[in-house]
């Protein structure tokens, strides 16, 4: 609601209005937006310049700072601009001036600057007190005829001087220069185009505004830094609608060498900072994200741009180059947004509309120039006509002038006696006697005839549109002749897709890896591992090593958690650390839940098939799935591999290579059995299992193992060990209860911790927290199931066998497994 309060003081009366804040802000921001759009950020479609650029060029022209004159200090020019035309900061004016001089941003710089005007490495220009500048020759084409009333003028900010609202512009500078800017609610982004093509296109549209040949003449953008422009569809969209997206790729060559191969970069995308590009490539080399890069050097000099990338002799050069295209500014996208001011309003222009706007402007300029010249020439012809007449009666004229009292009287008598006009009489009395010679009389007559011809030509331009367009196209051809431009950027029809073999980017080298129960994983170099002096890595308190071993950086880990979930982790994604460090948590790569522990880990090195994955829960549930279900998982995401009960957990996971494999199961209380893996029904992911072993109350699965012909080693929770033949483990049908595998002693109360198969000549590692021990199978007595445990190691209480990581290999499981597969029974439920 508006309120009005009036106050009076003496003879003056002031009115104070109270207005809503949103109304005030809306009004003020609308004014600000209009100013920003029209006077700051967006170019005029006619001359392609923003106001600050136009003021700089006009101020330099006005002060005589042209291409054929000596350089002026840049500070002098900046002071002239901000003092007369542009009431803003000197830094903004100098920055605009510097950009107009940079040949890596403009095909034809409008200012010729002497001194440090920056570089393609984004180095800042020297201070304005050090550099000197003058207009470039091509800028004369923008300013030509500005003194012939060809454009509208407006008062400057102080109303002391007049400035042009637009330049005459003899060529379509909006398209040839390239420009970008951000206003309130609008942004423009127009790339530079080829001068010759744009002029040819303008000539074609001057003849026929609806010509279909325009897109054949103007191929696309042409950048001062060259490069390869991909995607004619994007160019066509931009030319049709004013908006479109193109891809700009560096020009690169793969050069084979005797000791090293090289990728040589000679052209980079528009407005890419070369130093930043080199640094990015070098960071990839240092971080070893692309295996095979030895060195990156900037070898650019006065002869041109050159970046040399040294590669190992056997490195996949094409793959590395594609990786660099995708992950650096060797390839970038450019989005057209051709917005410019037309009739003081921002308009989205296509190529045709932009050129037609320029042509309309040029026609107006030529008409105004012709009218200006016509008036001047008519005035001059009128004077010449009077002089010729006066010379023909020179004796009478001289006598009349000699008899006059003064100049005014002489002019009056000439007008009265010979019917001269005031202008002619003035010229006659001011004429010098030497012009009465025969030669000068002849020159006057010739000049008059020339003026008559030129006046006829100008009247023809003003009266006939065809003659106007003839002059227009002639001037466009003249600009094309003076400023020819070979194309720098190559146009490619289709956007070339980048195909990268991710494995080719990974260094294939050995590494030591360890995975702990609490989901910590560590990748260390062999050098760090050998220097540690211990087989066990660094651990958090209460954690234990689940699996460890040597593998390669191109391998993948298949990880199972106790919550019945599985995921793939590429080894190269693991941060390299010292063997004694704790390592990184898998939650960074697999998004595990809090306190989610690891149940099993396997190594995938190649495409494996004909393998079966057997999962067993602590409550005795078991399921079998094809390895393909797991290798198809996307890295970085956990997927349910086995549905579990509320209080259940995934205890063990083993790999079966053959349908005849025998699976050994052992409970904590020592009940064990064996049966063929093919007795377990096959099912996919996200399903429950069937009962694999009937457990007594308070009992659970302790260990599961695919048995071979070697004896079975059983580890008790108190560190006791025993070894027995595989045949001692009873062969029963699933889901039998199993038989006890040791003689229970009341004084000790054995419970089972782990089980493994071990040849007599090999050793096994036992771990318990940070303690570990190695024992040979031959040191463990071979016993029967009816006997108790023998060897005891008190330091390995609650211990287990350390799993050694090895890549999985193909198995022999048949594709059709209907025969020999035991289906679930009623006893399998729960």
Automatic annotation (TrEMBL):
Listed EC numbers: 5.6.2.2
Compartments where found: Cell membrane
Residue ranges of every copy of the Topo IIA-type catalytic domain listed in the record: 42-503
GO CC annotation, single: extrinsic component of plasma membrane
SUPFAM superfamilies on file: GyrA/ParC C-terminal domain-like (SSF101904), Type II DNA topoisomerase (SSF56719)
Example GO molecular function: DNA binding
Known catalytic reactions: ATP-dependent breakage, passage and rejoining of double-stranded DNA
Residues of the site described as Transition state stabilizer: 129
Broad class of the protein's primary localization: membrane
Coiled-coil portions: 434-468
Topology term for the membrane: Peripheral membrane protein
Active site, UniProt feature: 130
Pfam families assigned: DNA_gyraseA_C, DNA_topoisoIV
Record-annotated site: Interaction with DNA: 50, 86, 88, 99, 105
Keyword set, alphabetical order: Cell membrane, Coiled coil, DNA-binding, Isomerase, Membrane, Topoisomerase
Domain of life: Bacteria
Top-level EC class as recorded in UniProt: isomerase
Purpose of the protein: Topoisomerase IV is essential for chromosome segregation. It relaxes supercoiled DNA. Performs the decatenation events required during the replication of a circular DNA molecule.
Family label: Belongs to the type II topoisomerase GyrA/ParC subunit family. ParC type 2 subfamily.
Subunit structure comment from the entry: Heterotetramer composed of ParC and ParE.
Name of the protein in its database record: DNA topoisomerase 4 subunit A
Species of origin: Faecalibaculum rodentium
Name of encoding gene: parC
């Amino acid at each position: 609601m508006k309120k009005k309060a009036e106050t009076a003081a003496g003879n003056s009366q002031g009115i104070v209005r109270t207005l809503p804040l949103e109304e005030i802000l809306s009004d003020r921001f609308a004014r600000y937006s209009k100013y920003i759009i029209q006077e700051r950020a967006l170019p005029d479609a006619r001359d392609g310049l923003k106001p600050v650029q136009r003021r700089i060029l006009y101020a330099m022209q006005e002060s005589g700072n042209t291409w054929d004159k000596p350089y002026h200090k840049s500070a002098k020019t900046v002071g002239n601009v901000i003092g007369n035309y542009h009431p803003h900061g000197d830094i903004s004016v100098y920055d605009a001036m510097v950009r107009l001089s940079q040949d890596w941003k403009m095909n034809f710089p409008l200012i010729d600057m002497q001194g440090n005007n920056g570089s393609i490495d984004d180095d800042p220009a020297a201070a304005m007190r050090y550099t000197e500048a003058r207009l470039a020759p091509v800028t004369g084409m923008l300013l030509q005829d500005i003194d012939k009333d060809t454009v509208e003028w407006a008062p400057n900010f102080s109303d002391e001087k007049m400035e042009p609202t637009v330049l005459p512009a003899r060529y379509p500078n909006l398209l040839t220069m390239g420009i970008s800017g951000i206003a309130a609610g609008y942004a423009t982004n127009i790339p530079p185009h080829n001068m010759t093509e744009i002029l040819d296109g303008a000539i074609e549209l001057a003849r026929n505004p609806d010509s279909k040949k325009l897109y054949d003449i103007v191929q696309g953008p042409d950048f001062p830094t060259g490069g390869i422009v991909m995607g004619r569809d994007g160019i066509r969209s931009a030319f049709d609608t004013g908006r479109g997206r193109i891809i700009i790729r560096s020009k690169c060559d793969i050069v084979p060498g005797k000791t090293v191969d090289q990728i040589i970069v000679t052209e980079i995308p528009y407005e890419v900072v070369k130093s930043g590009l080199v640094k990015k490539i070098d960071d990839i080399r240092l971080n070893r994200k692309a295996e095979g890069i030895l060195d990156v050097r900037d070898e650019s000099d006065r002869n041109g741009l050159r970046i040399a990338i040294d590669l190992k002799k056997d490195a996949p050069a094409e793959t590395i180059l594609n990786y660099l295209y995708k992950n650096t500014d060797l390839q970038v996208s450019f989005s057209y947004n051709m917005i410019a001011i037309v009739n003081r309003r921002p308009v989205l222009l296509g190529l045709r509309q932009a050129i037609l706007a320029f042509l309309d402007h040029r026609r107006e300029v030529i008409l105004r120039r012709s009218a200006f010249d016509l008036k001047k020439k008519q005035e001059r012809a009128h004077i010449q006509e009077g002089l010729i007449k006066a010379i023909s009666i020179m004796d009478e004229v001289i006598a009349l002038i000699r008899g006059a009292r003064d100049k005014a009287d002489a002019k009056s008598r000439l007008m009265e006696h010979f019917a001269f006009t005031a202008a002619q009489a003035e010229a006659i009395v001011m004429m010098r006697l030497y012009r009465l010679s025969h030669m000068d009389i002849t020159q006057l007559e010739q000049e008059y005839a020339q003026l008559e011809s030129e006046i006829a030509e100008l009247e023809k331009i003003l009266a006939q549109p065809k003659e106007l367009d003839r002059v227009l196209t002639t001037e466009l051809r003249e600009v094309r002749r003076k400023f020819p431009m070979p194309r720098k950027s190559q146009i490619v029809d289709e956007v070339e897709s980048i195909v990268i073999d991710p494995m080719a980017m990974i260094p294939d080298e050995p590494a030591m890896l360890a995975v702990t129960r609490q989901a910590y994983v560590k990748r260390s170099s062999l050098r760090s591992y050998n220097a540690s002096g211990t087989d066990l890595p660094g651990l958090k308190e209460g954690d234990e090593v689940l699996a460890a071993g040597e593998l390669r950086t191109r391998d993948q880990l298949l990880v199972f958690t106790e919550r019945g979930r599985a995921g793939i982790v590429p080894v190269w994604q693991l941060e390299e650390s010292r063997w004694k460090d704790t390592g990184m948590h898998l939650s960074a790569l697999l998004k595990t839940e809090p306190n989610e522990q690891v149940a099993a880990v396997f190594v995938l090195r190649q495409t494996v098939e004909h393998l079966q994955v057997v999962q067993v829960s602590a409550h005795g549930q078991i399921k079998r799935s094809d390895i393909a279900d797991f290798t198809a998982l996307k890295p970085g995401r956990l997927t349910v591999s086995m549905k579990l009960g509320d209080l259940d957990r995934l205890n063990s996971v083993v790999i079966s290579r053959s349908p005849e494999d025998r699976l050994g199961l052992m409970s904590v209380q020592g009940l064990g059995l064996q049966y063929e893996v093919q007795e377990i029904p096959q099912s996919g992911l996200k399903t429950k299992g069937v009962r694999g072993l009937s457990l007594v109350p308070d009992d659970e699965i302790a260990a599961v193992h695919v048995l071979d012909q070697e004896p079975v080693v059983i580890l008790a929770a108190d560190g006791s060990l025993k070894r027995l033949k595989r045949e001692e483990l009873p062969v029963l049908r699933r889901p039998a209860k199993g038989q006890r595998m040791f003689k229970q002693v009341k004084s000790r109360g054995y419970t089972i911790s782990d089980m493994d198969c071990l040849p007599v000549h090999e050793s096994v590692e036992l771990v318990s927290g940070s303690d570990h021990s190695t024992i040979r199978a031959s040191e463990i007595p071979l016993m029967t199931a009816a006997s108790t445990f023998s060897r005891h190691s008190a330091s390995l209480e609650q211990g287990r066998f350390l799993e050694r990581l090895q890549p999985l290999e193909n198995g022999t499981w048949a594709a059709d497994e209907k025969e020999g597969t035991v289906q679930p029974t009623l006893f399998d439920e729960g």
